[in-house]
Amino acid sequence: MTTQLDFTVGIGRETTYGVPVAPTRFAESDAKMKYDVKTIQSKGLRPGKNVNRLNRNAIGRFEGSGDVAFDVPTRGFGMWLNAVLGAVTNTVVPSTTPALYQQVHTISTTDPVQTFTLQEVLPTLGGVNSYPHTFTGCAFDSIELSAKEGGFVEAKLSVTARELQTAFNAAAASYPADDALFTFVHGAVTTGGALTPPTATAPASMTGSPAANIVDISLSIKRSLDSDGWNLGGKGLRSRAPLLGLPEISGKITAEYTDNALRDAYLAQTPISLLLTFEHNVAVSGANKPMLQIAIPAFRLKGEVPASDGGNPIKLSADFEVFDDGVSAQPITIVYRTLDTLV
Predict the structure, then answer these.
(1) Which domain of life does this protein belong to (predicted)?
(2) Nearest 5 degrees, angle CA 59-CA 65-CA 70?
(3) How do beta strands 187-191 and 272-279 pair?
(4) Phi, psi (5° rounding) for residue 110?
(5) Contact of 285 with 339, CB cutoff 8 Å
(6) Furthest-apart CA pair in the chain: how many Å?
(7) Contact 61, 236 (CB under 8 A)
(8) Does the pTM of the predicted model rise above 0.90?
(9) How many Cα atoms occupy the beta-carbon half-sphere of 28 within 13 Å?
(10) What is the pLDDT of residues 272-319, one digit of tens each?
């Protein structure tokens, strides 16, 4: 017997595009997947037939899509990051017992993208049965990471899928026994200093002190995957994995108005570096703690300038765009320190 709370969602890396595999990573998420059976209707006219005819209506395409959103855990997040960014190294941090791994995620540059099987297991009303929806050929196009005061660090991933299969067996969900969640309390952000990128085993660092006026921050990485591939012989399904487009990296930062650093950087369009680090307060390997870190060598603010807020404390809320500065090896690097052996 199950209840409506017993929903599960997990992913696994495919070896062959569109061939299902059992999920190996699960998220505590209320995922929202859709599967569209797109139909076509003949425009032909015939005397005496003034309603669309059934035998002139046919399937034109199958297409799945959706979002997977969840609070970011200290274990099990690496595969989800890799699903979007595409390139990763995974190295044991020296002299750590138990072994602490540092994953360094960067944006891939090789087609086609890695695809995944995503499986939802949905309980029926009354808890009599649970049925799997297995989406194959899943490509993750974007991820948004956000942190707001008083909340958890949240991730939202967007996915497109090739096919929905209903006969593939449901995988038993499994979760690390000792995972925790990153929160706003664990975070610190430094801007404008000299950024030292991470190595395989050491996190990034930046000169200067963490800002004390940041209210919230979000970051979006969009891979801009192509939307073609429905070719003859595919029987309405996509024939190939998506190809890479031009990545778009953007975000939004809200700060209390304590100085003019962000205002002046916006007015002059000065490039700014950023280091955002979430370090959990509980050590898991000696004195080492789980970490999620985002290093950006150069971004520019899109606006705005501070304005009065009717007597309330003034805040500056500005969108930003991340650029390749022509010097740094990567426009963005995400470090994930965890006890996970595998990404």
Answers:
(1) Bacteria
(2) 160
(3) antiparallel
(4) -125, 130
(5) yes
(6) 83
(7) yes
(8) yes
(9) 13
(10) 999 999 999 999 999 999 999 999 999 999 978 999 999 999 999 999
